[in-house]
Amino acid sequence: MEVERDQTVSSPTIPIVDLSNLDKELVARAVVKASQEWGVFQVVNHEIPKELIQSLKKVGTHFFELSSEAEKEAVATPANSKDIQGYVTNSQQDIEDKVDRVDHLFHNLPPPTSVDYRYWPKNPPEYRQVNEEYARQVKKLAENILGWLSEGLGLDREALFNQGFGGGEKAVYTMKINYYPPCRPQANLVLGMQPHTDIHGLTLLVPNEIPGLQVFNDNQWFDVEYNPSVINILIGDPIWRMSNGKYKNVLHRTTLNTEKTRMSWVVLLKPPYDMVIEPLKKHTGDGDEAPKFEPITYGEHVERKVRDKLSKAVMSALLI
Ligand code: OGA
Ligand code: NI
């Protein structure tokens, strides 16, 4: 099994990292290289059972396709809520607007300090157990990846998770399910999600079989191919800042399908809102590299990005 696709071929592809390789040095190097050059990679042989991922998709699809409006209302994000948790529908917006056209459900995952079961679908009944099991497994994977990324910065394995994300007590894991209904007839003109970099730290994504995710690298967009054995890993803004720009926060977007509904299950790893995000090397005392980023709390970073996005949406609406 290849660890990393040949980077010298004329049409490069998104790196694939085989986590079952016994040479962990090689795995670490592949993760670091992919994060530096692409900010996105796919992992295979990640030890999360195929059946568990299938169940995760099944219970989430059940919520979006079979729940009554009242059941969706029951977990809707309350008006004026500062918390992102809950169900929101944006898929039916005016076709001309350059806005995201996707319904989503956000809910935090355990640890119990951040979880709020009010936002978890009650139906199907196994929703909770499946999501809790997936959370347990995906967290191990996320923390392994942060370990390799820390080592790639010349830091201890725990540095990014503990100093950057607040460690096991404070780091927040959130499930986000995206639901993109088919869009006709102007689908080629319409994006499901506008180009963006992720506001949170690390993204672990599995889609359904409908393609749509695209990532930007070397001045062009690449399709992320569907492969049921992979988990897609994307680097977000906080890791870009913590690594002093060494790891790329990959620009990505999604397209819509004219016939079929696309869905994706995204686990996002976030620092707590009051955590200061800054280049970590500073703390080790041996980094002679000047920090490229001012310290900023994660909460302030989120507010700035949201303000920026709103003003861009208003601008594009005015320019049409
Ligand atoms: C996101 C995102 C991509 C997808 O939720 O931030 O980029 O494939 N999703 O749905
Ligand atoms: Ni994203």
From TrEMBL:
What organism is listed for this UniProt entry?
A: Brassica oleracea (Wild cabbage)
Keyword set for this entry?
Answer: Iron, Metal-binding, Oxidoreductase
Q: Does the keyword Metal-binding apply?
A: yes
State the protein's name.
Fe2OG dioxygenase domain-containing protein
Positions of the Fe2OG dioxygenase domain: 170-271
Q: Name one Pfam family in it.
A: 2OG-FeII_Oxy
Family statement: Belongs to the iron/ascorbate-dependent oxidoreductase family.
Molecular function as annotated in GO: metal ion binding; oxidoreductase activity
Q: Which InterPro entries match?
A: DIOX_N, IPNS-like_FE2OG_OXY, IPNS-like_sf, Iron_ascorbate_oxido_reductase, Oxoglu/Fe-dep_dioxygenase_dom
Fetch the SUPFAM superfamilies from UniProt.
Clavaminate synthase-like
Among PANTHER family, the record links this protein to:
2-OXOGLUTARATE (2OG) AND FE(II)-DEPENDENT OXYGENASE SUPERFAMILY PROTEIN-RELATED
